[in-house]
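Researcher: I'd like a candidate sequence for this fold, 52 residues long. If you have to choose between options at a position, lean toward the conservative one.
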């Protein structure tokens, strides 16, 4: 098998990219479920009104 970089280097890069992607997904889900914004004038409350 011909590779342009050592196998361990490719595994390391793929592992770091996977961990970063997983961290981004976890952060996105966490902020979606509990955004932490409490200001009643925040734009999200205009978008997420019950009448919409």
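Model: Candidate sequence:
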């Amino acid at each position: 098998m011909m590779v342009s970089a050592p196998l361990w280097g490719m595994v390391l890069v793929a592992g770091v990219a996977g961990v970063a992607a997983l961290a981004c997904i976890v952060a996105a889900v966490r902020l979606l479920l509990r955004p932490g914004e409490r200001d009643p004038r925040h734009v999200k409350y205009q978008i997420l009104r019950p009448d919409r």
